[in-house]
């Protein structure tokens, strides 16, 4: 599942980086908030000698080793700098390495290849995105004496999404503070919740509406028949689209989604999507328009996947705006390719911005949280594009997908 690759070199690189110590400022009240204060997690690291001393100490505790190796979950012991000083056999087996030396000195996000772990000189836990990380919050809580349980969502550099439940327990030995860090993979649990939401709520509602209209067919006048038929057609189309969307996502996450490049007029595509969503229930009382300055660009890509990416952008935008407000689609030429933008007048709160592409993160209730995650997965892993966004009070929120002029399909995908 995981490969260490070059991550065993991270510790040495981080040791050489100059760091400015920051006073630990997390308290119990802040741990109960959804986002940690800025610059509240220290980034400095213990020396290689200190890491080695702690590792040797824990490896010379046979009873502790036997107990932790018998636990089916991954269990780590972290020092007060959040670095691994002990890892049980389960982690080593998952990573495919033989001894704990390979991971000692690293932090959890560095071991699991979190995309944010290398974004700051001080590493895992010190970026703006880490302020919402459940693992960081749990570790910081244990280091001030609290037992913590949190959920942690990780997006890896390969666009693979991992979801964990983490438990931390404080441990003090000879005046030194450690954190016992245990985690369980809940990815399947979260995905089952999404499927339950899809089939027991969304699809059931659509099927119920179709059933209601078909029963109504025998009672309506000939003048009303055409309108009811049109509604049934729209509902069945949405039903098929919902099922197809889940099929695409499942195939994409397994890494076996087939891509079929062909010529696509970007401006024509966004016009099609704008017209389709103007009739969608989520657009009731709202407007979907194509910006008049949109440029006509033809690229070679997979039209079905690109449409899915843009549709998710439009749907998210419509759900974010109020009645009477407008969602604008725009196509632009870019050197070597094209850009599609979807803009709405609302601003996304910072806490949401920091988790926008994380699988299962949502502000819409249990079983949601796939729209932004799937658009990034489809666009970046399968269309060789890049998804980004900006959000401010001046411009509102703009989601963008940048695409190459010609999609080259690799024979094998990692």
What does this structure look like?
This protein has 414 residues and is of the alpha+beta class. The protein is built from 13 helices and twelve strands. The strands form three sheets. A five-stranded antiparallel β-sheet has the order 2-1-5-4-3. It has a five-stranded mixed β-sheet with strand order 7-9-10-12-11. A two-stranded antiparallel ribbon has the order 6-8. A hairpin with a 2-residue loop joins β4 and β5. The N and C termini lie close together (12 Å).
Features:
414 residues, alpha+beta, Beta-Lactamase, Heat Shock Protein 90, 3 domains, five-stranded antiparallel sheet, five-stranded mixed sheet, 13 helices, elongated
Number of helices: 13
Unreliable spans are 14-25, 365-369
**Which topology of the largest domain does CATH recognise?**
Beta-Lactamase
CATH architecture annotation of the largest domain: 2-Layer Sandwich
Envelope shape? elongated
SSE string: HHHHEEHHHEEEHHEHEEHEEHHEE
Strands ordered across the widest β-sheet: 2-1-5-4-3
Query: Given this structure, which CATH class of the largest domain is correct?
Result: Alpha Beta
Number of domains: 3
Proportion of beta-strand residues: 15-25%
**What structural category characterises the helix and strand content?**
alpha+beta
Kindly state the mean pLDDT as a whole number? 83
How far apart lie the N and C ends?
12 Å
Radius of gyration: 25 Å
Helix content: 25-40%
What's the gist of this structure?
This protein is an alpha+beta fold and 414 residues long.
Secondary-structure topology with pairs:
Layout: H1 10-16, H2 28-31, H3 48-59, H4 62-70, E1 74-78, E2 84-87, H5 89-95, H6 108-111, H7 134-143, E3 148-155, E4 161-173, E5 176-185, H8 187-216, H9 222-254, E6 262-265, H10 266-278, E7 287-290, E8 298-301, H11 303-320, E9 326-334, E10 337-344, H12 350-353, H13 371-382, E11 386-392, E12 396-404
